Amino acid sequence: MRCKAVVSSFAFASFLLSSAASSSALASPSDDAQIRALRVEMAQMRKEMMGQISTLKVRLARSEASAHRQEHTGTASVQNTHANPRMLASGPIDPRVKFAEPIPRANRLRLATSGTPTSDRGDIMSWKSFRAATAGEEDVHVGGMIIGFPKGRFTIATEDAAYALSIGLAFHEDFGGFFNAGPRRGEGRGAFNSFTSNMRRLRIPFTFRYKNFVAAVTPDFGANHNDGYVGLYEGNLNYTGLRNTILTVGYFQPRVTEEDSESSNDFFTLERPSITDMVRNIAAGDARFSVGALHYEKRWWIAGYFTGQEWGHRNASDSSSTYYGGGSGTTMDSQTGATLRVAGRPVATKNWDVHVGASGISAFRLACNAASSTSGSATSCSRSTSFGQRPEFDIGEANLAATGAINHASQVWAAGPELGVRWDRLLVKGEYYHVGVQREGAGLKSAGFQGWYGSAAYTIFGTPRMYSEKSGAFTAPGVKDNEEFNPALNHWGALEVVGHYSVIDLNSNLGDANAKNVIRGGQQTVWTGGLNWYPNRHFRLMLDFSHFIVSRSEQATNIYGRTGNSVAARVQAGF
Question: What keywords are assigned to this protein (predicted)?
Fold first, then answer.
């Protein structure tokens, strides 16, 4: 039908040329030469048009004959025509002849077809990868700009993707409470609510790009254990022009331990295991000043950073508004430290992934604070540290396992291995870390702590957890676009069941004769089971049940040892 329309158009054009040639005969004799030249040119044009018409008629006949044969034989002789609408069965056509083209795929707007949840942080990728992501997603072209959702995140970019701005969201609202967790006689009750809620994370990642230079700024409106605080999750500059490498400077979350390398949108349970949370905050954690790089390949991964203070930690008014507190207006010498993580992937097949690795972290110079905020003329300061962990449910409750202040601390370090194995839909992983605190002073011994965890997840339906080469860790389950929640079509997204065992031992030198060396922080054990449902890649609902057992510590809430249970839920959105 398109060929017939073209033939008709050529015939109409020929009629117009003939009419124009006839009207030229009425011109004056003085224009005879020009008229004759015009007639010759028009005759040539008419000859070329008739040739095109003849060619198209032949091709039309061949195409119709081929279609007729295909109807009777059931063959697919014109598959190439479907692959390229500019090709007819008889061969390529004259490029000057344009048919009614279908709307290009890049001119339609639609979210990504499938995938795992987006990250809770700025998505730092190379210019090459970013161009591929924008080209691979369907978007809208408006006035030389591209508006779309590469990897599910709203993005505005120039046609060559050199300039771009991406805006995301990480929304975690937790609610639930504790039961059978009451104190014994003489103990403080602590903030163990029977029911309450907490905006655990409310991050809005802004990512600004110029080619391979990327700035990531992420404010966090859920920056504390309780609602109502606003903080900074990250604010850094990155260079991505080297192959599979990201160079970073600024406030950042250095990647250390396997759990901390994952996005919080991918966690098995609501919170990290206690030991990895404790280790990462020695010299890493959220919004830590960092200078370093990571590099990854299919089979291995490495990252190292020099680190300084956390954002806000030299501000006295910030003593309780960051996630771990710690703001002090008396800091005379800020902390410095470093992190290193290496990981390998010796097995990588369709049904199997094996991950091995090790992480090390050190605060080789702790922050030195003056004795009083009024001592503006102070000539000396002291260094100390402390450790404490909640029973892996964060709605504002108190620590049960905690060391209290460890004075005269010069350095803190931690190191340990990590292991993960995925078989089809089952993923099992775990880590162990030893923590050391070096102390200065007559008769003072170094302190040592330890902890470990083991976790398992099985994806009942949906795409199972897979290995991310870029993060050297495992992702959450994925939901393909044709499996998104839609009961009318019997589509239910993805569902997984998870289990978790976590231990942290904050006791050190319990039998030492020098009371200054004895640290009774308690040993905490947490058992957790839960369900995670993903209706699509952008939303998740989590439900956890936990049972915790904590031996006695020096905390007023845990003088004799304490046990209890918690039920927690989370609604999550990520873009």
Answer: Signal
List, in sequence order, every residue forming a beta bridge with 456; answer none if it has no partner.
428, 499
Distances (CA, A) of 256 to 166, 215, 222, 264: 26, 21, 23, 14
Residues 6+ apart with CB under 8 A from 260: 253, 272, 276, 280, 284
End-to-end CA distance of the chain: 45
> The tokens 């003085």 sit on which residue?
30
Q: From CA 359, how far away is CA 144, in angstroms rounded? A: 46
Beta-carbon contacts of 284 under 8 Å, excluding residues fewer than 6 positions away, are 253, 254, 256, 260, 290, 305, 307, 339, 361
Across 297-351, where does the E strand assignment appear?
A: 300-310, 331-333, 336-348
Of 409, 388, 146, 112, the closest CA to residue 274 belongs to: 388
Show the domains of the chain with their CATH numbers: 127-372+381-574 (2.40.160.10)
Q: Under 8 Å CB-to-CB from 12, ≥6 apart: which residues?
A: none
Instruction: For residues 539 and 118, give the distance between their C-alpha atoms in angstroms, rounded to a whole number.
Output: 10
Round to whole Å and give the CA distance between 136 and 439.
Answer: 55
Angle at alpha carbon of residue 78, lines to 74 and 82, rounded to 5°:
120
Sign of the alpha-carbon dihedral angle for 141, 146, 150, 155: negative
CB 517 within 8 A of CB 445: yes
Q: What is the Cα–Cα distance from 304 to 25, expressed in whole angstroms?
A: 86
User: What does the mean pLDDT of the chain come to?
Assistant: 84
Residue among 461, 457, 460 nearest 474 (CA): 457
Q: What are phi and psi for residue 509, nearest 5 degrees?
A: 55, 45
At residue 93 the predicted structure's pLDDT band, cuts being 50, 70 and 90, is very low
Residue 397: CB atoms within 10 A of its CB come to: 22
Q: What are phi and psi of 25, to 5 degrees?
A: -70, -20
Per the structure block, which two tokens stand in for 442? 């007559």
pLDDT at 548 over 50: yes
Q: Which of 180, 154, 151, 147 is nearest to 169 (CA)?
A: 154
Amino acid occupying residue 391: P
